[in-house]
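Ticket #4471: structure output looks truncated?

Reporter: J.K.
Steps to reproduce: submitted the chain below (406 residues) through the standard prediction queue, then opened the result file.
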Amino acid sequence: MVASTETRRPGRSSLKALDWANFFLADVRDGLGPYLAIYLLTSRHWEAQNIGLAMSVMGVATVFAQTPAGILVDRTRKKRLFSIVASLLIATAALLTVTVPTFDVVIVGQVMMGVAAAWFTPAVAAITLGLVGHKPLDKRIGRNETFNHAGNVFAAIMAGVIGYYVSSEGIFLLLAVMSLISSVAVWQIREQDIDHDLARGDGQTEIGRETKSGWKAILGNRPVLFFALACVLFHFANAAMLPLLGQRLAKGINAGASSAYMSACIIVAQVVMIPVSYITGRLAPQGRKRLLLLGFAVLPIRGLLYTMTDAPTLLVAIQILDGVGAGIFGVLSILIVSDLTKGSGLFNTTQGAIATAVGLGASMSNAFAGAIVQHTDYKTAFLTLASIAIGALAVLWFLVPETKPV
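Returned output as attached by the reporter:
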C-alpha cells in the first residue's frame, strides 16, 4: 500500500480538482432528466407513455452497464481517462438529441447517456476513497455531494434562463458544455495522488483473499441485499415524481415557462441539498441508519402533498422535501457500501451491483408512472408512488442494520 488505509494526504490541487469535477458533473452524470420530458412534451408533442419510454431507456442502459462499470472501476488504474470518455459520450448524445430529434436518435442518445452515466458514481467514489482514505471519507463524500448539488443549482438556473429566453434546445447545449468542462476538471486530479488499491476498498486484507468470487461475496451478504432492496423501492418511488411534476406543470403553458418552472423545482431541491449533504457528512460518524430513515420518510409525504394542490408555487415548494431526502441518500448510500465492503476489495463492484438494482427501479418507475397517467391521472400516479415509498421505509427500518464503524 502507498499509504495508510485510514487517512492519506493528497495534494491540494487534486482535492480542488475533485471539487470542480463534482460541480460540473452535477447534471452530466444524471443526463437531461425532467428537461427531456418537457422538451418531448412541449416541443415534440410526444404522448406521456412514449415520454416515459424514452426516459426509461437511459435507466435500462444504466442497469446493464452499472455492474460492469463497478467491476472496471475496481480493476482499472485509468479512472480519469474513462471518466473523460464518459463525459464526451454524454455531450455527443445531448447534441444529437437536438440536431436530429427523431424517435430513434433520441432513444440511441438516451442509451449512450445511460452507459456513460453508469461510470460516474463508482468512479468518483473510488477516486475519492483513493485520495483521502477511509477515516475522512464521511466528510469528503459530504463535500462531494455539496459541490454536486451546487453544480445542479448553477445548471438549473442556466437551464431556466436559456429555456425561457432562448429555447429548450439550448438546455441540451448547456449539458454538452458542462460535460467538456468536467473532463478538464477530472484530468487535473493528479494520478500519483490516487491509491488505486485503496480505491477498490483496500483488498489487501484476509477478507480480500477469500475464495468466493465477487458475485458470490455480494449475494451472500444479507445486509447488502436488504440495503439494495430498500434502495430499489426508494428509487422506484422517487424517480418518476419530478418528471411527472414537470409534465403536470407544463400542461397549458408554453415550453419556455415549463422550463422555468422545472428549473425552479430543481433549484429549490438542490439548494436544500447543499446544507443537507454537508450536515449529513458531519453527522454520519454518529450513526448512518437514523439519518437514512429520515431521508426515506420524507418521500411518501412528498408524494401525498403533490396530490393536495394545483398551485404551481406550492408544488415547487414541496421540492424542499426532495432536497432533504436526496441530500441524505446521496451521502449515506456511498458510506454504507463502504462500511459493508471495507477490506474486501469489492467496494466499487458492490456499488455497481446496487446501482444496477437502483437503476432498474428508477427506469421502470418512469414507464410505470407514465402508464398510470395514460390510463388514470397524475393524482393516482403520485399516490401509487407514495405507497411504494412506504414499503422502502419499512425494509430499511426492519431489515437493514446500522453500519457505522465501531
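Triage note (M.O.): checked the attachment and the full C-alpha cell line is present. Residues 290 and 402 are 8 Å apart (CA to CA).
Status: closed, working as intended.
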